[in-house]
């Protein structure tokens, strides 16, 4: 199993490469920013990961994960998302505060324990924030979602939240917004960058900026 440091790098690169779907090189600067490290530190690690077969590295251009690197990164995501769901469903922790706990536990749980958690939870498809959980073979079943910020008037179901800051998730919960909730887009003002929605069963509407609405993945 790769070290926790290697896993964090691979996971960050996977996220920056659109889940491994993008064929474009990921710049060293973006990786450094994502991990709060200096470009020099990241460059040294990229050379190390390239030797390990996890990625291909082009000096002063960027990197791209190899199939081995994608596979290792996806398994980290699988552990992380299963742990988050376990902490919410079994340990009854608040969904707004499980990300940081999972960041630690994802590096220490064995594959056997992760498989038992998956079995205990009934082979779930999504974590508490609506992100798809890769199966044991690393297959990720992505949902066909739209950003709420791009939706016209109508009724939708919130499926995914693409931010994990505790303060933001707590605010969403205070507004009655989380995966599984149905909402109605009452109005959208692209010029002002404002989306007005109403949560199902609630009379009062909520006005939010497109930056907030853009992290809510929805479907009809």
Automatic annotation (TrEMBL):
Entry-linked Gene3D superfamilies: 2.30.30.90, Iron dependent repressor, metal binding and dimerisation domain (1.10.60.10), Winged helix-like DNA-binding domain superfamily/Winged helix DNA-binding domain (1.10.10.10)
Taxonomy, superkingdom: Bacteria
PROSITE patterns in the cross-refs: HTH_DTXR
Function as written in the Swiss-Prot or TrEMBL entry: In the presence of manganese, represses expression of mntH and mntS. Up-regulates expression of mntP.
Xref: InterPro entries: DtxR_MntR_Metal-Reg, Fe-transptr_FeoA-like, Fe_dep_repressor, Fe_dep_repressor_sf, FeoA_core_dom, HTH_DTXR, Iron_dep_repressor, Transcriptional_repressor_C
Protein name from the UniProt record: Transcriptional regulator MntR
Localization per Swiss-Prot or TrEMBL: Cytoplasm
Chief site of localization: cytoplasm
Keywords: Activator, Cytoplasm, DNA-binding, Iron, Manganese, Repressor, Transcription, Transcription regulation
Organism: Haloferula chungangensis
Family membership noted in the UniProt record: Belongs to the DtxR/MntR family.
Pfam families, sorted: Fe_dep_repr_C, Fe_dep_repress, FeoA
Claim: DNA-binding is one of the keywords in the record: yes
Transmembrane domains' residue ranges: none
HTH dtxR-type domain location: 1-66
Assembly notes: Homodimer.
């Amino acid at each position: 199993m790769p070290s926790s440091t290697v896993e964090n790098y691979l996971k960050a690169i996977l996220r920056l490469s659109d889940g491994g779907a993008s064929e474009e090189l990921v710049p060293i600067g973006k990786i450094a920013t994502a991990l709060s490290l200096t470009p020099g530190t990241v460059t040294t690690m990229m050379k190390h990961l390239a030797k390990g077969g996890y990625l291909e590295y082009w000096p002063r251009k960027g990197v791209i994960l190899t199939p081995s690197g994608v596979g290792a990164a996806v398994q980290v995501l699988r552990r992380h998302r299963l742990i988050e769901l376990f902490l919410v469903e079994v340990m009854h922790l608040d969904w707004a505060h499980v990300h940081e706990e999972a960041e630690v536990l994802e590096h220490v749980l064995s594959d056997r324990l992760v498989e038992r958690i998956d079995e205990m939870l009934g082979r779930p498809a999504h974590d508490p924030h609506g992100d798809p959980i890769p199966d044991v073979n690393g297959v990720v079943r992505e949902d066909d979602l739209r950003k709420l910020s791009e939706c016209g008037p109508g009724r939708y179901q919130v499926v995914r939240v693409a931010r994990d800051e505790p303060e933001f998730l707590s605010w969403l919960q205070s507004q009655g917004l989380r995966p599984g909730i149905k909402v109605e887009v009452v109005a959208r003002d692209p010029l002002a960058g404002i989306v007005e929605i109403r949560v199902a069963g609630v009379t009062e509407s909520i006005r939010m900026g497109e930056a907030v609405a853009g992290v809510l993945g929805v479907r009809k």
